[in-house]
Amino acid sequence: MKPSVPIKENQPFDAVCLGYNSCDILCLMDDFPRANTKTKLNRLIREGGGQAATAAVGLSRLGLRARYIGKFGDTPEGEFARESLRKEGVDTTGSLFAPHTQNQVAVIWIDEGTGERTITYIREPGLEIYPEDLNRDLVVSGGCLLADAHNIPATIQAAKWARKEGIPVVLDVERNLPDVEILLDFTDYILCDENFPKIYTGDSNGERALRSIRDRHHAPLVAMTMGAHGSLALVEDRFIHTPAFEVEVIDTTGAGDIWHSGFAAGLIWGWDIEEILRLAAATSALKCRRLGGREGIAGKSETLDFLATAEPKRFPV
């Protein structure tokens, strides 16, 4: 089954990614710290993060031309987050620096014994992207637009521009923010986590919730990721369950972001929907073999080799 809304060809970039970036600090320890104590860290890792920014890195590792549009704070963490993209070959021409503003920083506390984690973060209001911040020519410079569902008014504007130019809009949506329903009206591929359909529709049945979103917003594809249980997509009144792949999971940080970049890559390559969903599952699984949101992101040859030989995860019936 071919995608209903193919990419726009002969564009300067394969994809434009719009949304959050972050400077992530991973703190690895034997046990979570308790109040009024000192706790030794086993390792401290700093890397770039953020939904749209990490998806742009995922696309670049697959050999695709990615542009990231977002806003960085004018702090060392902001310069680090931007440089982490440039080092991966991601174009940041359309991005801005917010004056006198701390870049988004996430501190991720990881218990190495159990794998459990707690995330603390800071995101200042100055990092908000507004419609007037956007340059239309840069937004529509890709074969598809991949956005996370933050900065809603700006993302609605970007999606409207993309729709007018025949550019498919791929949306990573997790939260039921104000006016997200307007954004969904301008989205071709609605990709969400397993909690959003229930929160958005009030229906705890996954299939009914996806159908309700599809009927309300007329998107050609609505899908939700389900962690180790893979993904469920509704395409032309047909449900497609795609199992996750069996790998040794070290860390799931960023797995959803990379699932979305895998989906966009398959769309860019003109694959059938079933194979696009398998590619998304493969890219996400490969990332989970390494610590952090970006270290484990695989390149094209490794990903295609994995797709050709890997077995999907199986659960008892």
Q: Could you explain the architecture of this structure?
A:
The chain has about 325 residues and is an alpha/beta fold. It is built from ten helices and 14 strands. The protein has helices at about 50-60, 75-85, 135-140, 150-165, 180-185, 195-200, 205-215, 255-270, 275-285, 300-310, and strands at about 15-20, 20-30, 45-50, 65-70, 70-75, 95-100, 105-110, 115-120, 140-150, 170-175, 190-195, 220-225, 230-235, 240. Helix 1 crosses helix 8 (about 255-270), helix 8 packs antiparallel against helix 9 (about 275-285) and helix 9 (about 275-285) packs across helix 10 (about 300-310). The radius of gyration is 19 Å and the shape is globular.
- N-to-C span: 28 Å
- SS elements, strand count: 14
Write down the secondary-structure element order.
EEEHEEHEEEHEHEHEHHEEEHHH
Give the biggest beta sheet.
Answer: 8 strands, mixed
Strand line-up in the sheet with most strands: 4-1-9-10-11-12-13-14
What's the Cα radius of gyration? 19 Å
Question: Which key features would you list for this structure?
Answer:
317 residues, alpha/beta, eight-stranded mixed sheet, four-stranded mixed sheet, 14 strands
